[in-house]
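Notes from the pairing session

We agreed to fold both candidates in a single pass and log them together. This is the raw record for the first candidate, unedited. Please don't reformat it; downstream parsing expects exactly this layout.

Candidate A
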Amino acid sequence: MSNCACGARVRRVDMHRHRTQLCPCLPASCPLTCGLELGRKDVPFHMVICPKRIVQCGVPGCLDVIRQSEMVVHIRDNARKHLGLYAIDEQAKVWSLKEATVYTEIKSKSAVVLTWLVPNDWKWPIASPLVQAFDREWRLVLTRGKL
């Protein structure tokens, strides 16, 4: 038995195969082709931080999936879309904060009265959170103007 630099104890007859194919200290290139050379044992850790890894945009509601290294360009090119998504996210947060002002009143077996307090300076249209009633989910949508 011999010891490899990686710490593994290997039979002499298997040492060549170990050093050329199995040793975790063997040099390896990043599988995502970022250009980094590292030891095979370090590849899984590198994959978590590699700039070429695929990530989802961090803007709430944006479902775009891109390379981490392209995130700055994505944020810049989608600024208008992201502002709209942030507005929707903020509106949803306000609705969830206002749940205390929402109440349900059962008037009969076929009607439910839902009441929301809506500020005058609200951005339109307004969509409520989902409400469970009569074994269904309901959402109130308010708009200004005529249908």
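Candidate B (folded immediately after A)
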Amino acid sequence: MEAGGQKDQLWVISDASFQILDVVAQSGGSTHEFRIFNESRVKEQFEQDEFGPFILLGDGGYGVQKYLLTPLRNPETQQEQMYNTSHKKTHNVIERCLGCWKGRFRCLTKNIGTSLRTAKNIIVACAVLHNLAVIWKEELEDIYFEEEADNGNGQHEEIMTEEKGHIFRQQFIQQHF
């Protein structure tokens, strides 16, 4: 999404019903999603255990945390492979949510043509209206999808991980797979 010729970086959390739970729009397309998350109120809330047993799924660009599960770079066991498959299928919800959101509001697929501040307000307003459409079960005629980005070689890389996150992820795999 662009505003005034500058690419915005979006960071979005959605639930399984495609409702947008949090959206952050920042200027500068080179800002890494993990950095946006690291500076977010949501991260602080997860660290203070305000969300109880809920967890986030992130791609390999995020560091694994006790509340943020990422795919394993090199799964070795069948359990780990099943975990990665489940993670990929479940994480796909955000891609589909973004596709529905952009399908409803085509202005999000191109240069909005306003100041960055106005563009951010438009993005948040579109998120609110999208949520109302989800609640009211409004149908989409067609959906816009983007391909999931990776690091160019088909694999995701883990960065800035936390030991507790690795331990939690292994326990999660053992318990659920």
